[in-house]
Amino acid sequence: MSKNAAGSRTGSEQTLALYQELRAAPGADFDAVALRLQLTEAERERCRAELTDLGLIETAPDPAAEPAAGPAAGPAAEPAAAVIAPDVALLRLLQHERDRLESRLAETSRAQATLETLAGPFLRAGMEPGSEVEVEIVDDPARIRRELADLTHTVKDSVHSMLTGSVRREEMTLELGRDRDRVARGVRVQAMYSHRVGQVPEMVQHLAERCALGVEVRLSPVVPMNMVLADETFALLPTDPHDPESAAILARGPGLVRSYRALYEYCWQAATPYGHEESAEHGGDGLTEQQRAALRMLASGIKDEQVARNLGVSLRTVSRLISEVMQELDAASRFEAGVKAARLGLLDGEPYEHTP
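^ Helix-turn-helix domain-containing protein, sequence as received from the core. Prediction below:
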């Protein structure tokens, strides 16, 4: 390979070429392969960092290699780099993401269970002598609407709400009216919704209008229940968090309301400000069978030439297919396309064998 040819490659193409060479020669020295590809020291370290971040190579120190003692000892040997198959690396990335999500869900579940335990004695005993907490079960929807309407005029400092679903169309105008009144009086208004609500056209418009009025809106992957809190002295939430239509708990007094405020703050910190959320990944629904086959083969470490032979097409056609796949998945590189494809389940099925 000429130096000009090596230098004309983009960063991702250099990384891919280096990775393919390492795959083709198991046990080969990373630096030696990079030198053979005429990569500069900066390019070599950038490729090493990218492959490490993607989980495609791992540093594997040799436990038997002990540094020599004494002044004559030379520099310590560079740890060997173990090459990881693409499907294994992608599965590890997916496992890592799944573990993070499960951890977040588990923390939310523990917080909710703790709060339910705290609420239990109050619900059984009602108003205790000398207590500042008052708890009432309300099953009349008209009463709940009146309480929320009265809250608009009595709240002094803040209103915090979370909603698991969309706002009913007939309630949107009323909600915007309450927002105007509260914000005009200097009340801080926070509202949290699930991510899927942000995909409903009517809700997109409604959330934009709330933001324009000065309401702080966030979207969260986990919204445990419907809830309205005000001034740390008022709380309205369902008796059954899994059934939004169940009777409501109406609590007054800081003793219990602060506990629910702690849950709200936890969810709020994990949520994303509306309008700043990451764009959803393309689903790959527009991929043809030929494009999917090419994607699976490349994810298995098969080189473009072998892909072309397997599909019975030219190298130019393979390049076009991969370009179309990257565009469909909104990926800037082949590696990113592979990661997104794994997350979307596009690599499911029998893997292709890497044959010379």
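The longest strand covers residues 188-194.
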